[in-house]
Design goal:
The chain has helices at 2-15, 79-93, 141-153, and strands at residues 21-27, 30-31, 34-35, 39-49, 52-54, 59-61, 64-67, 101-104, 107-109, 121-124, 127-131, 138-140. It is an alpha+beta fold. The strands form three sheets. It has a seven-stranded mixed β-sheet.
């Protein structure tokens, strides 16, 4: 849809020199037929706009955000902590610097095929909408992007 593409292009122009965040993708490989530990490798960069990730030529639905860190033996109170530590170690093995934020599990969204089933984007009676949280309602995409671009350009103190 043209309206979605126009809004995204306008956001890209406004973001210009705003720093981007790293995108990562899972990779596994075999050496001499033996599988190595899976890793998260660099897959580009994007501006993080809430539930959306905006690249130079694509829009993505945000997945999980982790910080890369070296794998060390730790005791964990919960299995979920162990899983997050394993994901962070996979990012470190993949070449991300210690402490670097990495987006993984993101999903590409085709702006030309946005419809009622697209997530988090959809078409409403008054134009494109975005669901700003899993439990939240939809709001106009233009207003959402304007707010998120303003926050990215001038983040709050301490952010």
């Amino acid at each position: 849809m043209d309206a979605v593409a126009e809004l995204l292009d306008a956001a890209r122009r406004e973001l210009g020199a705003v720093p981007r965040e790293a995108l990562g993708a899972w990779r596994s490989r075999r050496i001499l037929g033996i599988p190595t530990a899976p890793r998260i490798v660099p897959a580009g960069s994007a501006w993080h706009l809430g539930v959306l990730l905006l690249t130079e030529d694509a829009v993505l639905a945000t997945g999980e955000i982790i910080r890369a860190r070296e794998e060390v033996r730790r005791g964990f109170a919960a299995e979920s902590q162990r899983e997050r530590a394993a994901i962070a170690a996979a990012a470190f093995r993949g070449g991300f610097a210690e402490g670097q934020s990495v987006h993984v599990g993101w999903q590409a969204i085709d702006p030309d095929t946005v419809d009622a089933a697209s997530s988090p984007l959809r078409l409403g009676a008054d134009g494109p909408l975005v669901r700003w949280s899993a439990a939240g309602g939809f709001m106009p995409l233009g207003a959402y992007l304007a707010e998120r671009v303003a926050l990215a350009r001038t983040p709050p103190a301490g952010a």
